[in-house]
Specification:
- By secondary structure, the protein is of the alpha+beta class.
- The protein is built from 20 helices and 20 strands.
- The strands form four sheets. The chain has a five-stranded antiparallel β-sheet with strand order 2-1-5-4-3, with helices on both faces. A five-stranded antiparallel β-sheet has the order 7-6-10-9-8, sandwiched between helices. A five-stranded antiparallel β-sheet has the order 12-11-15-14-13.
- The longest helix is centred in the C-terminal third of the chain and has 30 residues, at 352-381.
- It starts with 5 loop residues before the first strand and ends with a helix.
- The mean pLDDT is 83.
Amino acid sequence: MNSQTGLFRTEIETGIMLEANDSLARFAGFENREALLSSNFNIAERYVHPDARKKMLAIIKEQGQCDNYETRFRRNDGSVIWIRLSTKLVPDKGWLEGVAEDITAGKLAEDALRESEEKYRILFENASEAIFVAQDGKVVFLNPTTAIVTGYSNKEFVSRPFVDFIHQDDRNMVMERYVRRLNGEDIPRRYSFRILHKNGGFRWVELDTVLINWKGRPATLNFLTDITERKRVEETLQKSEERYRSLVENADEAILVIQDGIIKFVNTRAIESFGYSVQEFLSIPVFELVHPEDRNAVIERYLQKINGDTTPTHHTYRSIHKGGHIVWIDISSVLIDWEGRPATLNLITDITERKQAEEKLRESQERLLKEQKFTQLLLDTSPAFIVAIDFDGKTLMMNRSLLDALEYTAEQIKGTDYLTNFVPEEDRMKLAKVFQEIIQKGNMTINENHIISRSGRIYLVEWHGRSVTREKGSSNIFVGVGLDITDRKNSMDQLRKALGGTVLAIALVVESKDPYTAGHQRRVADISRA
């Protein structure tokens, strides 16, 4: 549906647009047909005069069709154009199908000629395009720009057949289209050809033409644009093809064009990445290069693309190097036209090293998680009391032994004030001084104080504590490891020997959560065992 003429299909009763091509979408003020159709466009609402569509429908219902019906039409931006409609009824579907032409230029020209010679002169004589009227194979009217484009005077133009000014190689094509248009055939309005210049050379021009009535007889109104410079640029771009090929060949990404499951083009990077020669690439079915476990998914995506999915896609999968080893690749694919048929353009990056690094990171994280779980198990099975408190006195954690003794759950103690909730009033001031000493000196301390359970039970505990520096931006914390000496005051020497292992366990917890202080914690363990 790439015709320069607007094609459409609407519901006869409502005027809702059911189908259209890009040309009609542009007539209506939309970028393309998709934008028009998605707007729920209603053509019945776009007639400037509400009765215009009723009159056309009356003709269609009487004759089954309506040809060359001219009316004013309001575009999406509010501007008004003239269109010529040729429409027929599809009764069993309830549709109207037809073609539309933008005849605004012709209407403007006719109006200008009809309404005012002065307006006519302003419109034509000041136009940047060459404008002329052709009738019976000759130019019967032209503006000054026409003479500028061709080098011929107005008098010379009107005295000779128009075909004399057309390049010999283009004459048959131009005259054939001219005659067919006069006969009412639907042909492209805009096309390009070469016109002879008076200086002996030629200029490339683009012609946009519409059928008009000139002095009571058929003629064509023609708008001629000099595109010689554009053609020169196009030829320059064609000549620079080798430079673009050089860019492709030296790209950091492997580039493959795939059509019918066969590789049609590869660049140098693809050869380096996969180890195959150009000849081998072009002879191997491309899916044989894909790892068997990924092959079905790749084939499915390729078929979706070939069947019209124009959306660029991005995927990761495994490929097989000529040497037999696996290469992880990241591929971006887009649908293109290759020698007149659908194909995919594929940009490929070797991400094998990144995948290997990701796998090592995953393994490292799994090991760390196992170590953390093991360390937590040590904490929870230790008979010693273990507590972590921030420098604001808020409780961060307790191990299972201490929670059970105090008769709380981990959720209940988190964020509570340690001194207020778990230390008898008579010991609070003494323990507060110990905290201050740790803050100021950072040394390990050993002290005895009482703690109180939820039910009021009192324990005497020997605490081994010190501060731990956390990550930058986080508050420091106290870590304390305590022994219940309530009933074993006289056995302290033997129990102290066992304390070192428990301190080592808390060091492992801190190390797993804060590797920056790992060395400090091991030294704490050494001191505890001394």
